[in-house]
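pinging the channel bc i need a second pair of eyes. not urgent but kinda urgent?? the chain im working w is below, pasted from the shared doc
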Amino acid sequence: MNTENEGTAVPPAPSAPPVPVESPTASPEPPAPATGAPTTPAHAPGSADQPPAPAAAPPSGAPQAHASHGQPGHTPHGPAAQGSAPDASWPPPAPPAGPSYGGGGDGSGGGWGASYQPPAPKSGRGRGGIAAILVAALVAGGVGGGLGYTLARNNDETGSTTVSAPDSGGSFKRDAGTIAGVAAEALPSTVTIEAEGSNGEGGTGTGFVFDKQGHIVTNNHVVAEAVDGGKLSATFPDGRKYDAEVVGNAQGYDVAVIKLEDTPSNVQPLTLGNSDKVAIGDSTIAIGAPFGLSNTVTTGIISAKNRPVASSDGSASSKASYMSALQTDASINPGNSGGPLLDAQGNVIGINSAIQSTSNGGLGGTGQAGSIGLGFAIPINQAKYVAQQLIKTGKPVYAKIGASVSLEETTNGAQITDQGAGGSEAVEAGGPAADAGLKPGDVITKLDDRVIDSGPTLIGEIWTHKPGDKVTVTYERDGKERTVELTLGSRVGDS
């Protein structure tokens, strides 16, 4: 999936709303070209070692998405990787161009597993956004002035009298459950995150308060630049800004946890909902900093569930991330990555992560990608488990079946490869798949009641489970369908 920072570089943007300047002289700078995410066979969700880089390219027409520190991208369910070489090592190779990150400020459009591009250099942050806002203000001001003069003249000539409402809009009470009420409750617990690497590059994304200890949950791609020796800050809507540090990050899940330094005593965690109970058509509310415009609220519905999405930052060394995503038509753009997707009651049901883009090159193509109504979020039930593991140990834990599967584009299932990464065995000796009797060449078509149409889809589905869960695997061998039950194993860390 590529939403938010998924797949394309997004020009850095200010963490807080831009401050008006005397004249709109700054001209927007074009976004950095996006690079397609690498594609390569990945381990079956738990197989030996690798989940992250989206490997398979989505089937034609598959959406791409990602939304992290300003990058869109991601694809609809069923995307298959283009690479055919099986890779058992962890993590799987990055997927072909596809959805871009939707919340981070970068994004790329392309295959179902959109690629991710690093945000533009710090020096250019905010210029385009500020210029655009100033131009809009000038146009609106000109039109408003003309209308005001005309109306005043007409009133003078006709002697008409206007009638004013008893209360201004600002004094009205916003009831809980209304969009305004939900936004009023949730905004104080969201933050705009600015991450800067040791090389001076970085981007903007979003996060939300996870607990009273000051832990903030966001996308891995939002903070990736600051993991090793970088700088990280989180700004609340009221302007309070805190330095922060990365507690743990999971590239395969695209989830990260940061902690505020000098955590204020009044931080209020957002209430977590139950993403398993979400239904297609349910109302959604997204909060983020699209293109650096902090504290932006957009609305929509749940358009689909269990959309297979893969994404990566597009670099040669990138690892892919996989999810069985919630799809929403709420407007999500680069900078929304890591922000909360809320239900009508204000409960968090997902983490905005990627968007599908129409541009061939994603955010880094001919123009920066933006919302086309295809956004993807990591289900909160999965993100909660991952965040708790990161807070506890600093490392992610992945469920696995212990087999390497092809990431080639297909709609027939996930085929166990003849050989794993680096010449290793495709089916791990003593692993869950081996104990269940699975062999190279077997094609997995279902995991429990979920139809599996490709290797990336299988990986995303396996990662919705926890190590130790029992699952039913349906597969084909020599033209015959078979079913077996196995217990998922575990792998710790992204490498």
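so Residues 127-158 form the longest helix (32 residues). and Residues 1-91, 102-156, 360-367 have pLDDT under 50 and may be disordered. — does that match what u expected or am i reading it wrong
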